[in-house]
Amino acid sequence: MAEPILRMTHISKNFAGVQALRGVQFDLFPGEVHAILGENGAGKSTLIKIITGVHQPNEGEIFLNGTQVHFADPREAREHGIAAIYQEPSLFPDLDIAENIFVGRQPMRGGQQINWKTMTSEAGNLLDTLGVELNPKTKARDLSVAEQQMVEIARALSVNAKILIMDEPTSSLTLAEVADLFRIVRRLRESGTAIVFISHRLEDLFELADRVTVLRDGAYVDTRPMAGVTTEQLIQMMVGRTLNDLFPKLDVEASDVALKVEKLSLEGVFNNVSFELRKGEILGMAGLVGAGRTDVARTIFGITPATSGRIEIDGREVRITNPQQAMNLGLAYVPEDRQHHGLVLPMSINHNITLPTISNFAQNGWIKNSAASIAAQEAATQMEVKASSIWQKAKELSGGNQQKVVLAKWLATQPRILILDEPTRGIDVGTKAAVHGLMSELAAQGMAILMISSELPEILGMSDRILVMREGYVTAQFSREEATQEKIMLAATQSLEGVLN
Fold this sequence. Notes:
Rossmann fold; 24 strands; 6-stranded mixed beta sheet
């Protein structure tokens, strides 16, 4: 490992006067997993796009195997053995696995016809190399997110990629799928592939990465061996300050019951879910992916009405069959998938924030745009949304700022009961702390909050009480004082025999 396969020195990049990177250095050795860490807006994506030829640096030099290179476009980077796998898979849904692996490079027979047999066979060999049991003739649309990522890795191997970039690959995977992905990454590392790994999940990095490079505000901070760094040190490097408490939970005396759910069921999805949520309380809901937590939230909010059971709000039984009824009753729901269910990406921040409350700005059939814009600006400012203006499109924002817009939108409805589904998924540590602080303040003001999260530190750090679900059933309930990671994981994985009996 004396000579890096990739070395970048003094890399700077600006866009229309905005300095995205300044003086960044980075090196990567064969057979290592090198993590790049930083808050949203730190410059990680820009650096990756320079490595893959999407952008060209304004200053600095790039060396590949000791030779200086200039990539005019992604095609040139691919030809030099650089491949990238992004958070959202980029497969063609109507093509099968083999076609996706070899798209644009299909083996030909006689120079005129695709050799389907050879293509399918070679795709199968690549999947076997990764230890992945998939039929090469399966359509991409029938694959899970994890399986699609495996296909993208196979596609990278098919072009003999020596450098593989993985951008937030675990954000939408189950624990079992993450373990499978890590197994494949380790196999690639052993074969000499150099891997750049980007993740907001620090636990991923400690388990997998050999070294970590931290960026902050477009500048290089440091590179450290993962074995010699602590979580606290990484956080301090990322945000430029010490975060002694990522979970600023205020002690609040919960009062009256705001929401009561009794034997709530959705046929074939979840059964006999019962709990109470009090004003000033944060009730955490834990469980593995597929346990039914999101389905319960969607049912309470009226997206998928219950088939049986009772819902009470402020002691009065209600029947919620659509989200408008839920909103009228003082409920708000921040969904798990902000891009597809929380935002209208082509629309501006202004229009996204005012979407649920647009009727408040209507008069005689006309929208008072100035009043709506003032309200949106106030909400965006309160949430500290970083954008050029409230007219910037939501799709142009970082993940953390998109999440802030979703929160601003629903808080503008002035809810009494707030349901948060994975409130900090895919956002950086600094923004997570800000969201946690907001949650704590809202609870202190008397809001009742139901928080669904797959991150156990978040569940333990922010919840007053914790419910655990497995396969559509509530399997346990813990107070803040008695909850531990071990107890929660046991309840999330234990047999349902005792629950059903």
